Amino acid sequence: MRTLQTLPGWIHPGTAGPQSLRTAHYAWGTLLAAAALFGAAWTVGGEDAVSDNWVGMTVMLLFLLGLIGSTAALAMATYAGLHGEPWRRVWPALATLPAVLVTVVLLELLVFE
């Protein structure tokens, strides 16, 4: 029978905290790149520049990757916290997914109407 200490095999309790922070940073970087691309295209060409073309598809793909990365950061930070990592070290990774979800919901309500 497998126990919690053997799952998952590629994350070790000593490295899960720093890895979750790196993953959270990558997720934020991806989301900032999407915002920069979207903002530049919107400024230059308006709504037609971001709808139904490669810019809109790229921005949505970057948002999706940011959501996946922030979910992975949350999972790794929770794993690290439950295995002895101080919570104050992993709170940025824990806060990434809720912050990303709030950002996406606000963008959907206010910008993408």
What do these coordinates show?
The protein has 113 residues and is mainly alpha-helical. The protein has one domain. The protein contains three helices and no strands. It has helices at residues 13-45, 54-82, 87-110. Helix 1 (13-45) runs parallel beside helix 3 (87-110) and helix 2 (54-82) packs antiparallel against helix 3. The radius of gyration is 17 Å and the shape is elongated. It starts with 12 loop residues before the first helix and ends with a helix. The model has no long low-confidence stretch (mean pLDDT 83).
Helix content range of the residues, please?
over 70%
Q: What is the string of SSEs from the N terminus onward?
A: HHH
* End-to-end gap: 50 Å
Sheet with the most strands, sense and barrel status: none
**Helix segment tally:** 3
Rg measurement, Å = 17 Å
What ranges have pLDDT less than 50 throughout 5 or more consecutive residues?
Answer: none
**Whole-number tally of structural domains:** 1
Mean pLDDT: 83
Sum up the overall morphology in one term.
elongated
Keywords: Membrane, Transmembrane, Transmembrane helix
Transmembrane segments: 26-45, 57-79, 91-112
